[in-house]
Amino acid sequence: MAEDLIIVGAGGFGRETVDVVEAINAAAAVPSWHLCGLVDDALTARNAERLRARGLRHLGSLEDLLARESRPRYVVGIGSPSVRRRIAERLDAAGFSATTLIHPQATLGSEVTVGAGSVICAGARLTTNIQIGRHVHVNPNATVGHDTTLANFVSLNPSSSISGDCVIEDGVLVGVGAVVLNQLTVGRDAVVGAAACVVRQVAGGSVVKGVPAR
Ligand SMILES: CC(C)(COP(=O)(O)OP(=O)(O)OC[C@H]1O[C@@H](n2cnc3c(N)ncnc32)[C@H](O)[C@@H]1OP(=O)(O)O)[C@@H](O)C(=O)NCCC(=O)NCCS
Fold it and tell me: Are 127 and 150 in contact (CB under 8 A)?
């Protein structure tokens, strides 16, 4: 039987996550998920209309979700690593458990592990011996090379490329189209700007951009 699922965040990535859920269900003989709806504390009129147009339910705020008696599975469909961390910590403390969503058109090679709450989108390519932590977002067409670790709450934006033997620490955001060269560490909560090329270690908490990234 399909399990109940709630997505937190009805913005762009939240609704892209709906696509991942729908693709998983469409590829299975029996649908895996019953999407109850989306939770959003600050639903805009535009996003409300977008939900309506797709026949998706807005289930109220995070507080409304926390006040429920039932404990459906969840993912946080919000791109910001820090916001995602805050929400996941509250939900986990209240007894909710996150699930992992992997689009059937993503490819995962050998010895790839993916933690709870992570969302891997269509076109993502992950090769071999890769550890992905909890609540990691791998956006469309992002690639991750061999022997790399993505820690918890990492966001790889679309078409970013992480080379082999890298460590991407907790809470890092890698911007759209950015590249991290092999054997490098990007420190906790750092941001790599869109289209940057990272050629040396990135200190935790820093923002780097450009080619080479500084
Ligand atoms: C790098 C980044 C984090 C900087 O954000 P910010 O601190 O708010 O910076 P600002 O927008 O104020 O820009 C500051 C300066 O950096 C420049 N800049 C911004 N982003 C840049 C980038 N990716 N590469 C090179 N220069 C950039 C701006 O032009 C500006 O230059 P100026 O001071 O000469 O005018 C952000 O621009 C970025 O690239 N984020 C990733 C976004 C992304 O992936 N979006 C896709 C979502 S799916």
Answer: no
Cβ-contact 93, 111 below 8 angstroms = no
Cβ atoms 99, 83 nearer than 8 A: no
Instruction: Please tell me the distance between residue 128's alpha carbon and the centre of ligand 1 in angstroms.
Output: 32
SS3 172: coil
CA distance 213 to 77: 28
Tokens of 126: 């992950």
Over residues 63-101, the pLDDT tens digits come to: 999 999 999 999 999 999 999 999 999 999 999 999 999
For the sheet containing 197-198, what is the strand order?
Answer: 107-108, 125-126, 143-144, 161-162, 179-180, 197-198
- Å from CA of 99 to ligand 1 middle: 32
**Count of CB atoms within 10 A of residue 2's CB?**
12
* Cis status of the peptide bond prior to 81, with omega within 30 of 0: no
Q: Whole-prediction pTM value?
A: 0.98
Q: Which of 119, 141, 209, 211 to mutate to test the pocket of ligand 1 (most atoms within 8 A of CB)?
A: 209
Q: Domains in the chain and their CATH numbers?
A: 3-93 (3.40.50.20), 101-207 (2.160.10.10)
